[in-house]
Design brief:
Low-confidence stretches: none
Structural class: alpha/beta
Number of strands: 6
Strand order of the largest sheet: 2-1-3-4-5-6
Shape: globular
Number of helices: 12
Helix content: 55-70%
Distance between the termini: 43 Å
């Protein structure tokens, strides 16, 4: 019997929607073997909560105002946090899935996952085992098995793809810096590299090329 199986698995729930947080807290409270220690509404607050509460597992949403999940996962990885991160989101596009896994997420589930599947995923994450929703696993396998159609996409680093995705959403440099926990100067440097690699003269052109090349979906 593993250590986590012998005691309740502790969790921190990170999501910007209070209804979602309340629902998850109630779901785990009603199930034996789990304990929700706290909540956070964005990636920045998640870092504080994890440092203070030291949970076994962090249920992490990805797209949140005030600090996204991918940047928080990367920072937790950099800090060497003990907590395992299980992404729980509505998004399964390559631009969401790959950066989260590259940042250090242990698992990736969609919010429409059945309750028992979510419980099993949390147990697996607590034991250090990777778990992916069938849809995400299929996308990753396809991505691995299919050679890149355009070398431009592979030329962008994971962080450059993150910046381009945020630019496509209309996010300002200041907002990008806050979400990714980097300086505005670093954002500008990443944008300079993105423009050069995509052969784009400005943000709009970079987004257009990103969609045309399939980098943005």
């Amino acid at each position: 019997m593993t250590e986590t199986a012998a005691r309740a698995i502790s969790l921190v729930v990170v999501d910007d929607h209070p209804v979602v947080r309340d629902g998850l807290r109630g779901m785990f409270a009603a199930a034996p073997g789990f304990e929700v220690l706290g909540e956070a509404s964005n990636g920045v607050d998640a870092l504080t909560a994890v440092e203070r509460l030291d949970p076994d597992v962090v249920l992490m949403d990805l797209r949140m105002p005030g600090g996204g999940g991918v940047a928080a996962i990367a920072e937790l990885t950099r800090r060497g946090a003990r907590s395992k991160v299980l992404v729980l989101t509505t998004y399964d596009t390559d631009s969401d899935t790959l950066p989260a896994i590259e940042a250090g997420a242990t698992g990736y589930l969609l919010k429409d996952a059945p309750r028992e599947e979510l419980f099993a995923a949390v147990r697996a994450a607590a034991d250090g085992r990777s778990v992916l929703s069938p849809a995400v696993a299929s996308r990753l396998m396809t991505r691995v098995r299919t050679p890149a159609a355009d070398p431009i996409e592979t030329a962008l680093s994971a962080r450059e793809r993150e910046v381009l995705v945020l630019v496509a959403r209309g996010t300002t440099n200041r907002e990008i810096a806050a979400e990714l926990f980097i300086s505005e100067a670093t954002v500008k440097t990443h944008l300079t590299h993105v423009f050069a690699k995509l052969g784009a003269k400005d943000r709009a052109a970079a987004v257009a090329v990103g969609y045309d090349r399939g980098i943005l979906g």
